[in-house]
């Protein structure tokens, strides 16, 4: 028996340690999801089933029952991709959006809309509808006067909302909005 211990941990010990580590990760994630604001939770863009599980756990208010709901949530989270959920959470905390590609696309559109104004708004999906011209004008005025970036942020939020509402294939075709010469192939045939 002393020979087995000197060789290192057994497979059983390794398996138990891995299970414990996975449990700790899901418990930490469950605790984070229980404590985060509802607006941040909405930005994670979770599927309906997982969102319902989290909402049910968050609805519990009594302290002891809430701790029990958190443990139940941790167990439910193990049935989902924890790495994907952690990645989404990190992206939302860093950028405010679960999809970093969408965030960068929205940044490019905002810069282009402020720079080119109504010319770029015509090309932007839903561009000349009511809030867009006002938001662009306010962001331009803000940039020229050196005011804090409130209007620019409002324009960014509007751009993100419009891009999220579009199908993923349509958003992917807009990845390079600066390349006007290469963009004459599929205008709206998605």
Topology summary:
Layout: H1 2-6, H2 11-35, H3 38-43, H4 48-58, H5 63-77, H6 82-95, H7 100-116, H8 118-123, H9 131-145, H10 150-165, H11 168-173
Helix pairs in contact: 2-5, 4-5, 7-10, 9-10
Quick overview of this protein structure:
With 190 residues, the chain is an all-alpha fold.
Written description of the protein model:
There is one protein chain. By secondary structure, the protein is mostly helical. It folds into two domains: 2-92, no CATH class; 100-173, Orthogonal Bundle (Diphtheria Toxin Repressor, domain 2). The chain contains eleven helices and no strands. Helix 2 packs across helix 5 (63-77) and helix 7 (100-116) crosses helix 10. It is elongated. The termini are far apart. Mean pLDDT is 79; it is low at 175-190.
> Mean pLDDT, as a whole number?
79
Strand percentage, roughly? under 5%
- Please work out how many helical segments DSSP would assign: 11
The SSE string, one letter per element, is HHHHHHHHHHH
Can you tell me the number of structural domains? 2
Helix content: over 70%
Structural class by sheet pairing and helices: mainly alpha
Radius of gyration: 23 Å
Number of strands: 0
- How far is the N terminus from the C terminus? 67 Å
Specify the overall morphology. elongated
Uncertain runs: 175-190
**Mind describing the biggest β-sheet?**
none
């Amino acid at each position: 028996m002393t020979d087995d211990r000197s060789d290192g941990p057994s497979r059983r010990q390794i398996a138990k340690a891995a299970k414990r580590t996975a449990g700790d990760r899901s418990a930490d994630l469950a605790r984070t999801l229980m404590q985060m604001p509802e607006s941040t939770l909405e930005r994670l863009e979770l599927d309906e089933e997982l969102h319902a599980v989290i909402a049910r756990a968050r609805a519990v208010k009594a302290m002891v029952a809430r701790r029990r709901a958190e443990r139940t949530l941790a167990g439910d989270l193990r049935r989902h991709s924890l790495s994907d959920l952690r990645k989404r959470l990190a992206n939302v905390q860093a950028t405010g959006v679960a999809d970093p590609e969408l965030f960068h696309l929205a940044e490019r559109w905002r810069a282009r809309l402020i720079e080119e104004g109504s010319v770029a708004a015509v090309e932007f999906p839903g561009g000349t509808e009511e809030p867009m011209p006002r938001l662009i004008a306010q962001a331009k005025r803000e940039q020229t006067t050196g005011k804090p970036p409130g209007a620019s942020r409002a324009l960014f939020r509007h751009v993100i909302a419009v891009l999220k509402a579009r199908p993923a294939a349509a958003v992917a075709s807009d990845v390079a909005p600066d390349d006007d010469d290469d963009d004459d192939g599929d205008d709206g045939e998605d």
